Amino acid sequence: MSRDKLQRIMQGLPLFLLLGWVTKAFTPDLKSKAGLMARDLEMRLEIVSSGAALWKQLLLPVFTVACLLFIIRSRNLLRAYMNVLLPVMLFGLFLIASYFWSDHPSDTMRRAVRQVLLFTSVAGAIVIARSQNRFVGYLQFFSIFLLIYEAAFLLVPWISFDVFNKFTGLHPAKNEFGGIAGAFLLISVAVFRYYAETPKERKTALICACGWFVLLILSGSKTPIGFVLLLAPMLMFSQHLVRYVSISVVFLWLFIIVFIPMALIGLGEQPIEYYRSILPEEALTGRTGIWYHLLADLKDNWMFGTAYGAYWGVGAVPEALDIKYSYYQLLHTAHSGFVDLCMELGVIPTVFWLVMLLIFLMLTRNSSDPMSAALIAYALLHNCLETSFVHGLHFVWVIMVMAMMNILYSQAQRPNLDAVFRAIRDRRTQDPPPPVAAQPG
Question: Is the distance from CB of 98 to CB of 307 less than 8 angstroms?
């Protein structure tokens, strides 16, 4: 093996390991799906009442330290790392600061530190990969590996299909697999349309797209299926359309969270009652009923929420048959990342986060990275009806952070235009060189 090839493998290894971890490639679910209801109750109780195994808790800090040890060897890598990391670290510091008003400070601190470690490790994996083209190549390589791995579970249907005959792959639930399959389907479409340079690469990307599409349909996960069917044609037509989708989603939620409630309060109306009238609790497979109950709780802590990680899965575990417990605690998400942001971080930080995201999308509108733009749009749409934003190590959240940091990395690697123009001005203001004397005939 040549030295250059070995170096490229080592540069992609952190990204491969991180993706393998968050997609549960190292810890596949090998339990039978036959006893779904009892097993689902057991899984949710475990989420609420216990922490992860010690090796899982230590894996992210060790991974982060390993990335940092590699990066600090080079001044240029360290500078790029800090440029990429700084924008999201400010958000991470706010998560940690919410410790001071949390009713469950230990849970808040533990979960906030995990998010900060996630930001630092993702930034490290992106910077170590060195270039945008290599980042795309590594993602496509992992897509091929995971597609073969997930498809192999078709051979063991008692493990990979639930009692409703929905494909779950190596994951415990179809919605978890659906979110992953939808993202890798978009990655394959982006590679086929924009990055593949040879017929072999285009053929490989097309096979991957078809494979992920088949598995996604088998999962029956309606949310990712619907959003992929919306985004994939846009991505094929123009790389800029998916960015407009992201901007539209951010504007939509700013209207839902800020402008419409302010107008209704000014008119003497109650926002929750208004939303109930236009969107009944039976709509969206029962999600709206969950949102109305949570918004009623939000009234007490609407400015800064309950603090990060201090609403779901905290406190003593009551009796499993308690109605409120089974509805709130066993549920463990609002099935909308935007609603969960409001619950845990409050309306003001959520609006600030959305505005910062909007500014990021506008400032990087000329970024030549359609894959990252597509993944951000997918994550924003996915979070309208599912929760992944700042939600542990959820794959959709991790892949969105990767996409944002990849765009930031490409921006950080561009030449400093101010310095270039300053150098041009300096050359113009210098004294002109003396004229050269004419040489005789």
Answer: yes
Query: Closest Cα to residue 122, out of 343, 309, 398, 312?
Result: 398
For residue 71, pLDDT over 50 is answered with: yes
**What pLDDT score was predicted for residue 435?**
53
Sequence letter at residue 243: R
CB atoms < 10 A from the CB of 215, how many? 23
Domain ranges of the chain: 9-26+54-251+335-413
- How far apart (Å, rounded) are the C-alpha atoms in residues 207 and 90? 40
Q: What is the mean pLDDT of residues 100-128?
A: 91
The 3-state DSSP class for residue 161 equals: strand
Residue in the structure block whose two tokens are 């900060």: 116
Distance CA 231, CA 375 (A): 10
Alpha-carbon span 201 to 199, nearest angstrom = 5
Query: Angle 88-92-97 (CA atoms, 0-180°, nearest 5)?
Result: 145
For Cα atoms 291, 296, 302, give the angle at the middle one, nearest 5 degrees.
Answer: 100
Per-residue b or e along 263-275, where b marks 16 or more CB atoms closer than 10 Å to that residue's CB? ebeeeeeebbeeb
In this structure, of 105-109, 114-118, 365-369, the range with the lowest mean pLDDT score is 365-369
d(CA 131, CA 38) in angstroms, rounded, equals: 47
Name the CA dihedral angle for 131, 135, 140, 141, rounded to a multiple of 10 degrees: 90
Distances (CA, A) of 343 to 52, 202, 347, 349, 350: 24, 44, 8, 11, 9
Which residue in the block uniquely carries the two structure tokens 């400015």?
Answer: 303
> Nearest to residue 160, comparing CAs of 37, 42, 30?
30
Give me the amino acid identity at 188.
S
Q: Which two tokens stand for residue 388?
A: 């992944």
Judge whether residue 330 has pLDDT over 90.
no
Taking a C-beta distance cutoff of 8 angstroms, is the pair 364, 407 a contact? yes
pLDDT digits (tens, 9 = 90+) for 203-232: 999 999 999 999 999 999 999 999 999 999
| Coil, strand or helix at 280 | coil
